[in-house]
Every structure is written in structure tokens, then in C-alpha cells.
Design goal:
single chain, 3 strands, 7 helices
Length: 145
């Protein structure tokens, strides 16, 4: 059943906090959570499975801070992080019937004008750099948190 049809029938439930779960699994303070997609993929899939087993209809990718301002210099591109995170979430979701993957997008990390120095177009570019590979990787929706 398509997600829009399902929404007409019942309320869909999202998963819970990713950061808290990663801390439970040993994410050190100050470490970039999105790098766990590469260093501990089994943990990410386990977290997704726990939320799905608990009744979540939609799981969010581990990409809240995956923009070039926040992950630049990490050794991974934004596209690699997004693609890897979507792959892990999709693999977990596909183990269950009618489950969906949302691309999680957090704040860009800088204030926009007039309060800060980031222009609107730059902010749009940062989100575009996340959304395009997310769509290409197969997300069902985009969650701007």
C-alpha cells in the first residue's frame, strides 16, 4: 500500500531519538554521530530494527548533521554519508512489512542573515547537497527536524 493511502487509514508512527541510542551504544561525546554509519553499521541497523520491532512505521536515517559544514574534514563526503545511512535504514526497513525510511535533516549549523552571515541560497545549497543523494538512494520522505 502506498504511504498516502496508509495515511488515510491510520496514524503513522516515527521512530525515536537516534543520538540518545548512539550514546547508549558508546558514541563518545564530541564524535560525529554520522560516522557511526561506517564504523558501526551493525549498531545502526540494530537501532533501526529496535524501533521497527517496537511499532514504528517510519525510521529516520542517521543524517541529522550530515552537511558539509558539519562533516567537512571527516574523510567522507556528504553524499557518502547520506547514501550509507539510507542503505542501512532501507535494509532494516525491508525486513518488515510496509515500513518507510525518512531522510533526517537538522539545522545547517550557522545562523542566516540578518542574525548571522549565511545567505538563503547557501542554506538551500546545503540542503540540496543532502536531499539529492537521499532521493537517489531511495528515501520515502524527507524529515526536516
Amino acid at each position: 500500500m502506498e504511504i498516502r493511502q496508509l495515511l488515510n487509514k491510520r496514524i503513522l508512527v516515527f521512530d525515536g531519538a537516534m543520538g540518545t541510542m548512539l550514546q547508549k551504544y558508546g558514541l563518545p561525546t564530541g564524535e560525529t554521530p554520522e560516522l557511526f554509519n561506517f564504523t558501526h553499521p551493525e549498531i545502526l541497523k540494530d537501532i533501526h530494527r529496535q524501533y521497527l520491532s517496537a511499532g514504528s512505521d517510519i525510521i529516520s536515517t542517521n543524517t541529522f548533521g550530515a552537511n558539509r559544514l558539519k562533516v567537512g574534514g571527516s574523510g567522507y563526503t556528504v553524499e557518502q554519508i547520506i547514501t550509507g545511512a539510507v542503505k542501512l535504514a532501507r535494509e532494516a526497513a525491508d525486513e518488515f512489512a510496509q515500513k518507510y525510511v525518512a531522510l533526517s535533516l537538522g539545522p545547517v549549523g550557522k545562523l542566516m542573515k540578518p542574525s548571522g552571515d549565511m545567505g538563503f541560497e547557501e542554506a538551500c545549497d546545503l540542503y540540496r547537497e543532502q536531499i539529492e543523494p537521499g532521493i537517489k538512494a531511495g528515501v520515502d520522505m524527507i524529515l526536516i527536524e
